[in-house]
Write a structure and sequence with these properties.
3-stranded antiparallel β-sheet; two-stranded antiparallel sheet; alpha+beta; globular
Length: 294
């Protein structure tokens, strides 16, 4: 659009995107091949696959182990960005492309800035997507890399529940009620929405969504370590045959319950531990289906 070439804010954002991407080389960040600031175009890597927002819209909540694996890749890309002295500031599912094998690519760096650079816009003009903004962004305070930690926590919350931590009022264009909720309220605890989410993972996500930056993980590397610890838990499924109580008729005609041995081949109930907590399943076929679901 010709008129955008004359818009200083648009031109500045384009230049920001070009400068940011030129500094980045990471398998989870979309690669830029060429950029022209006079003609204003990018030649970028083509990524085959939907963005994460579309994936969530189509499937709802994402399986825990899969969500953690995607979250680790997002956080790893952001850790690389932070090491280059940049803060993304607009982390959201729509800026995460998901290709085959759940390999993700981060994109859209138009509002990324140097960690010590002044805000691109004047006070009163927020930049970013409100649902994923940290409280300090909404208050237009000085920000640092911890706004990205908050945002990736919000993305994790949405993957695990199918909804963002705070949602705007249906049919309303007024964003202030949403901003007030982000500033003053806590999101519904993850395990109240989905009780199968492991407690350690719920705690990591909750900590990343803390109102105060000081209460969040200090760095993205720390956040990654927490997620990787959760990944080890969610990736493990332990299956244990459970002894069953069966009625046994005694010689005097009375009956009692006797426990079969769990080592016997005729047991028909299993205890399964994994990312969804502990369940009992009644048969081998149910066991196979339960494992597939996890």
């Amino acid at each position: 659009h010709e008129h955008l070439r004359e818009d200083p804010v648009t031109v500045r954002r384009f230049a920001n995107d070009a400068r940011a991407l030129a500094k980045l080389n990471h398998p989870n960040i979309v690669q830029i091949y060429a950029a022209e600031l006079g003609q204003y175009y990018f030649a970028m890597e083509h990524v085959e696959g939907p963005d994460l927002s579309k994936l969530i819209a189509e499937s709802g909540a994402i399986a825990t182990a899969r969500a953690v694996a995607i979250g680790i890749q997002i956080a790893d890309a952001l850790a690389h960005i932070h090491r280059q002295g940049l803060v993304h500031r607009d982390v959201k599912p729509g800026n995460v492309l998901v290709s085959a094998g759940d390999r993700i690519k981060m994109t859209d760096f138009s509002i990324a800035r140097e960690s010590d650079e002044t805000m691109l816009t004047l006070k009163g003009s927020l930049i970013g997507t409100v649902e994923y903004m940290a409280p300090e962004q909404i208050r237009e305070e000085d920000t640092d890399l911890r706004v990205d930690i908050y945002a990736v926590g919000a993305v994790m919350y949405e993957m695990l529940t199918g909804r963002s931590p705070f949602t705007r009022d249906a049919g309303s264009a007024d964003l202030w009620p949403l901003m007030e909720r982000i500033l003053k309220e806590n999101p519904i605890p993850l395990r109240e929405i989905n009780s199968s989410i492991p407690e350690p993972l719920a705690e990591v996500v909750s900590r990343s969504l803390a109102k105060s930056p000081a209460d969040r993980p200090a760095t993205m590397d720390e956040f990654i370590e927490c997620l990787r610890a959760c990944a080890e838990t969610t990736a493990t499924i332990r299956i244990t045959p459970v002894a069953l109580a069966r009625p046994v008729e005694l010689p005097d005609g009375s009956a009692r319950l006797a426990w079969t041995s769990a080592s016997e081949p005729d047991f028909d109930r299993y205890e399964i531990h994994g990312s969804g907590g502990k369940d009992f399943v009644p048969s081998e076929q149910s066991l196979i289906e339960a494992v597939r679901e996890r």
